[in-house]
Amino acid sequence: MQRTALDFWVGLFVLIGIAATMILSMKVGNLNVYNTSQNYVLTGHFENIGGLKVRAPVKSAGVVVGRVTDIQFSTQTYDAVVTMSLDSRFPFPKDTFASILTAGLLGEQYIGLAAGGDEAMLKDGDKLMKTNSAMVLEELIGRFLFDKASQSD
After folding, report:
1. pLDDT of 43-77, one tens digit each?
2. Residue 102 CB contacts under 8 Å (≥ 6 apart), including other chains
3. Rounded to whole angstroms, how far apart are CA atoms 46 and 59?
4. Which of 22, 81, 118, 136 could form a disulfide with 94 if both were Cys (CB 3.0 to 4.6 A apart)?
5. Beta-bridge partner residues of 87
């Protein structure tokens, strides 16, 4: 009887460990399946999205207010169309500015929202009019080297 009780507690401990590992891996992978809040969808056109990925965070003032849900290429405007889902608890003015930023020097990319001063708020399905593309490290290095080469002439 004593051996059965020990096996039960070990088995229970292993199950709790597996459940905790699954929850942790979902948090790390941005796969929050238990988000039950109301959302509204916005789109933005960017010339270059760099390494932005689906499920990347959308932040304002460092707080996650939504997630990127889709990234498409527009054959009419030849730019990237990013669809994002924002929590309805966080309304933003119509003149909100969206930028693709990097967490740290080589960290993950995310969309940063800077609220404007317009009285009207963005609604479900609206398009962000003001966007700023990602800073690509290779382009910055190329510009720096080209500027240095042109200064030495």
Report:
1. 999 998 888 899 999 999 989 999 999 999 999 99
2. 50, 108, 109, 110, 134, 135
3. 17
4. 118
5. 39
